[in-house]
Specification:
By secondary structure, the protein is α/β, with parallel strands linked by helices. It has eight helices and eleven strands. It has a single domain, classed as Rossmann fold (3-Layer(aba) Sandwich). The termini are far apart. The structure holds adenosine-5'-triphosphate and magnesium ion (MG). The site of magnesium ion (MG) has 3 residues, from helix 1.
Length: 214
């Protein structure tokens, strides 16, 4: 379980975002909300990519916000699959090599073929990412996040660049392969949000202020 308590993030001399307390069980959850309301910032705080200025991020009872950078990095590498809106794939490398790069962080990628199969892209394994369609690249990005069988999957607009039909198919796949884990996904599309177990309207959850003492 993931829980946040009194979480706030202050960007140097700029916005202060204060979040209402949240908990995420082993379920799928969509984050909806206006641009700039703090969705990406929440995912980054949960993933330990940024350090909150106050509050706790509890993952299975452990306060990650207080952990050392090394501990956070180890935890993230082992237990969190992060799917970026812009994929962050190595375009000139093959699908297989994009997953194999995780071995540099000592991630076990022995489940690669099973994951590619689940996502319907096993036949693309030896293709260069550059030659794939948008939907295919998105599946590769999801495969890279899932190959380590993480407990937590964080997805920042995983279908942002795709049309509704392809987006819906990818969201359905993502939800089904995430069963039994915690999936938190940002989306701008309320039709896609309905596919998740739960929808959180971040407009009501993240309170943003201009930092007055900057
Ligand atoms: N590195 C940063 N430095 C300063 N301000 C930042 C930084 N990152 C985010 N912000 C500010 O924090 C607020 C929340 O940003 P965030 O990226 O979390 O929004 P978002 O909900 O993901 O928006 P979008 O839907 O456009 O992706 C915004 O006002 C943004 O300008
Ligand atoms: Mg964002």
């Amino acid at each position: 379980m993931i829980a946040t308590k009194g979480l706030s993030v202050r960007f140097r001399g700029e916005a202060l975002i204060a979040y209402r307390d949240l908990t995420f069980e082993r379920e799928s959850c969509a984050l909806l909300g206006a641009s700039g309301c703090g969705k990406t910032t929440l995912l980054n705080a949960i993933a330990g990519i940024l350090t909150p200025s106050s509050g706790e991020v509890l993952i299975d009872g452990r306060n990650m916000a207080a952990a050392s950078q090394r501990e956070k990095d180890d935890f993230r590498i082992r237990s969190i699959g992060f799917i970026y809106q812009d994929f962050k794939l190595l375009e000139d490398m093959t699908v297989e090599d994009n997953l194999r790069v995780l071995e540099l962080e000592r991630v076990d990628v022995s489940q690669m073929d099973a994951v590619l199969e689940e996502l319907g892209i096993l036949p693309l394994k030896r293709r260069r990412v550059r030659k794939l369609s948008g939907g295919e690249k998105q599946r590769v990005a999801i495969a890279r996040a899932l190959v380590k069988r993480p407990d937590v999957i964080l997805a920042d607009e995983p279908t942002g660049n795709l049309n509704y039909e392809i987006g819906a198919r990818i969201v359905e796949t993502l939800i089904s392969v995430s069963l039994g884990r915690t999936l938190i996904a940002v989306t701008h599309d309320d039709r896609l949000a309905k596919l998740f177990d739960r929808v959180l309207d971040m407009n009501e959850i993240a309170r943003s202020e201009v930092d007055s003492d900057a």
